[in-house]
Amino acid sequence: AVGVRAYHQNVIDHYERPRNVGTMNKNDPDVGTGLVGAPACGDVMRLQIRVDPATGKIADVKFKTYGCGSAIASSSLATTKVLNMDVEGVAGKVRNQDLARELCLPPVKLHCSMLAEDAVKRAVDDWKAKRAQRDARAASAS
Ligand code: FES
Ligand code: FES
Predict the structure, then answer these.
(1) Which ligand lies nearest to the CA atom of residue 72 in the structure?
(2) Which amino acids bring their CB within 6 angstroms of ligand 1?
(3) 100: CA distance to ligand 2 center in Å?
(4) Domain NIF system FeS cluster assembly NifU N-terminal: where (predicted)?
(5) Residue 67 CA: which ligand 2 atom is closest?
(6) What average pLDDT does range 70-78 have in this prediction?
(7) How far is the C-alpha of 76 from the C-alpha of 18, rounded, in Å?
(8) Is 111 buried (19+), middle (13-18) or exposed (0-12) by CB count in 10 A?
(9) Does the CB atom of residue 87 touch ligand 2 within 6 A?
(10) 51 lines ligand 2 (CB under 6 A)
(11) What is the dihedral of CA 62, 66, 67, 71, to 10 degrees?
(12) What is the reported pTM?
């Protein structure tokens, strides 16, 4: 792994003080969970969103990354972007190129920011799948 001194200051800040680290109950119907792994290095990231059913906005977001500093910084930055976003509007708004640029990641670390983009996507997909299931149950019950 690259020495921390080689990282850009923005990375160091998100690395030393990562935002929104933690876990939510994945069985909560309003929580979507994205779990992704990077084949290149074996690092794993879990990112969760909780959507306020009244507003459709992402009211809470948490992540846990078992990986390198760039992956931690990328997920930390990604969480700050999605918080308070409309869940329907997230697609395409958290892009790994943007994360990498803001954090000044070197090319060999691009897959670390890709992990964060994928984790956000999966979390939203999981939330949507849960909602579809719930809607189907409600429809069959009526
Ligand atoms: Fe070092 Fe991913 S390769 S933590
Ligand atoms: Fe693999 Fe960073 S080195 S996620």
Answers:
(1) 2
(2) 1, 41, 43, 67-68
(3) 12
(4) 6-132
(5) 4
(6) 94
(7) 5
(8) buried
(9) no
(10) no
(11) -10
(12) 0.88
CATH class of 4-137: alpha beta
- Residue 16 CA to ligand 2 centre (angstroms): 17
Q: Which two tokens stand for residue 54?
A: 């009244």
For the chain, give every domain's residue range: 4-137
pLDDT in tens, 25-50: 999 999 999 999 988 888 999 999 99
User: Longest Cα pair distance anywhere in the chain, in angstroms?
Assistant: 61
Going by C-alpha positions, the residue among 81, 18, 97 that lies closest to residue 49 is 81
Instruction: Compute CA distances 31 → 25, 123, 142, whole Å.
Output: 7, 8, 25
Q: What is the DSSP secondary-structure string of the chain?
A: ---GGGS-HHHHHHHHS-SSB----TTSTTEEEEEEE-TTT--EEEEEEEE-TTT-BEEEEEEEEES-HHHHHHHHHHHHHHTT-BGGG-TTTS-HHHHHHHHT--GGGHHHHHHHHHHHHHHHHHHHHHHHHHHHHHHHH-
CA of 37 to the centre of ligand 2 (A): 9
Does residue 69 have its Cβ closer than 6 Å to ligand 2?
A: no
